[in-house]
């Protein structure tokens, strides 16, 4: 297939997405980006069919691609329900209340990054971290008058550091399996790039916090905010039982979906027990007792729920859209996975990859091409797992020919594939985190310091020739057959 033919749908997508940013701005992910992805998929499918690809193959690829995202979609819906019941229960308000007592604006970004890093490292889940503590932290940051972009950037930086380094993380296990090394070696080897990357991010967040660079000129903490939050809910430490149970379940390797569902149910139960006045106000004056509990719980899980305090900022933060608020995110993920599947079924993805990684003759060039391949697959296939698996399978033999140990490949796959997925507005990770935090991907992406520094650090290390372990130095590397 000619390279220009394979590039055509990509060029069309880039042009359409660029137009969406110009005309719709941060609202581009609420419809126009989805249409752009489908138009690009349609053009790729038409070109592929004109060159002999049959519709059945394309359809099966789309079905398989969306099928692989089923669990992620379910998790997103459950996070929406979780945010609703935890708001109803006063759990999120409690996080905001106590967080404002402990944290100060100057250290907030630094502390938020560390909290999310520790939690994600313990649980192995960036999505779980952002969907629980991250939701509370974004509210605290907004209440302090900080830019939501900076706050989301700190949250995501910490969450993806922990996810990348945790032995419980799926991507941390996937990368060494694809590259042909073991998990412990992979994690140890990542320290050489991931350690400096998170140190740079923390220094930036600390400097920005103390210089006031994260302050939002349009948002200030009006008097009475704390009183409005505490006045609307019964705030006490017992409200944290549900979050603790969820985090313990995830840390004990309970799958994310069941753990989040338990969190949803515990949130509803907590609301009924500790927030009867809030439950009654959400259900309406015509209902009482068990009926009010049922109606308010269902409303919080599935639809909009809000608590009115009369304080403008408090009313903005004390609202949730439940599962319904995640449907746009689900829509975007389905469209993104469709586009990636059509490129794969028509052979365009393979042709683009061939052009990207051909002619490599040095360690720096090979690692640079790996970084480029991971970024390309995050953009084109819209999925971080594809951005790890496909470059890993394609480039394994090239690393062997260069005499490089497989941990060089596994480290680069994570440095460039795992962490950059969240920066792409139509990637499943970018879509998910934007939907969870309520902050547009393009609004937070510039401030995800760790996620930008990580791939640059792996290139710097390669350029300096520092800690590039060779096959002769590696302990019995696993040699994989060429793919």
- Spans of 5+ residues with little confidence (pLDDT < 50)? 477-483
Biggest sheet, open or closed, and with what strands and sense? Answer: 2 strands, antiparallel
Spatial ordering of strands, largest sheet = 1-2
Total helical segments? 24
List SSEs in N-to-C order.
Answer: HHHHHHHHHHHHHHHEHEHHHHHHHH
Number of strands: 2
Separation, N- and C-terminal Cα atoms: 20 Å
Overall pLDDT, averaged? 82
Question: What is the CA-atom radius of gyration, in angstroms?
Answer: 23 Å
Strand content: under 5%
Secondary structure category: mainly alpha
Tell me, briefly, the overall form.
Answer: globular
Whole-number count of domains: 2
What does this protein structure show overall?
The chain has 24 helices and two strands. Strands 1-2 form a two-stranded antiparallel ribbon. The relative contact order is 0.15. It folds into two domains: 3-68 and 339-446, no CATH class; 70-326, no CATH class. It is globular. It has helices spanning 3-24, 32-50, 55-68, 70-88, 91-102, 105-123, 126-143, 148-165, 170-179, 183-211, 225-232, 241-251, 256-274, 276-283, 289-302, 312-317, 327-345, 348-357, 363-380, 384-401, 406-418, 428-437, 441-444, 449-464, and strands spanning 305-306, 319-320. By secondary structure, it is mainly α.
Brief synopsis:
This protein has 483 residues and is mainly α. The protein is built from 24 helices and 2 strands. The model is unreliable at 477-483 (pLDDT under 50).
